[in-house]
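Cross-posting from the modeling subforum.

Setting up a comparison between two proteins and wanted a second pair of eyes on the formatting. Protein 1 (sequence, then structure tokens):
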Amino acid sequence: MTTLTLTTGLSAMIFGSSFAQKPGEQYNNADYKLKAAEVVYESRIDALVFEVTVEGQAGKTVPKPVGSMSGAPVLGYVFPTTLKSRDVGFSATEGIVAMALTAHPDMDDTPLWDENADGKYDNDGVVWHAHWVVLTKDERVPGGLSVKEFKAGDKTVELPKTAPGLPFFFDSPGFNVISQGPSMRVVVPSFRVHHQRDFKFDAVACYMQMSHSDGHHKAGSEPMLGVYNVFGVLSGNLSLPYTVKK
């Protein structure tokens, strides 16, 4: 299944969802109304700069903690791309490779990084940070998407050294995230995507939620990390029409 075929199916699910309730709707404000997005290759620093612009203040609204990883809220600006899983350090797998900028106060999934620079590495999940994820179609959640999972201990799966160690295609690469008024951007060194510069992308603002508690996850009931409410898709149809500027 190609990336664009998958996005077509996901688009139908997202925009044709019959779910009456919209989890996370209280966060659906101007800070998540998408206005623009771009990915620019900056030759001076040999890096890609992903940037999203909203009507309000990018990153100002963050989730309220619930006190548990089970049901933990996650807000995100997500860039679905046509990159391949191997381009970002995962083993080969089907799905949509996305750069996700997230904030979530109930957990810290970047054990190598101290984003708030307080000397502690496990207390800054609410600080906006970057993840590579592989998204897949998932009818269990109203947003139609979840991060692709695999069986714990599967030796055929490869993850980057910066991955936090959970059994899904999810990485915490430590890229610099900058919020500045209506814009949020992340700087991705070119070598960290195998120097790919010709991919396509889209932008999504969304509410996600964890289903994971005390190291345990009920497989099959709901995804470990799923998209529960899509606030907006820049292209309007998740067609990934945008290209990297050089």
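Protein 2 (same layout):
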Amino acid sequence: MVVGEEAGNFRGASIRREVPSLDVLADNLLSTVFMNLIGNSVKFGGSGVEIVVRAEERDGEVLVTVEDNGPGVPDDMKEKLFHRFERGGKARGGRGGDGLGLFICRTLIERYGGQIWIDDRVPGRPEEGGAAFRFTLKPANRDRDSGL
């Protein structure tokens, strides 16, 4: 639900969703996480970027991945990007962000009891480009909590 709604806000972007129906412990601000992550992929990846959003149950958690085939994130910037006002670079067209988007993502995911981090799209092969933003969420009771 949330993933489809947010993906629809980026008309013209190539976004593939591989998200089964999963219920997680979150609130309506979960959409802000997807808006920021997908938005960053579009902004920094350029016009030909391809984005894939995946979710799966793993080890008692829900693992969500938003990955793209853009330029990737250098290792020395991966942790810093989640700090307030830290900027990772300039988007195509010369504009950077305000340094709050990923900080907000981390704050929300931690509030939901999860963790968020950045990997290379192809593990161990940064030269192939692309970033994979991953986060975990707690599975929820289907009767009362938010769905992906």
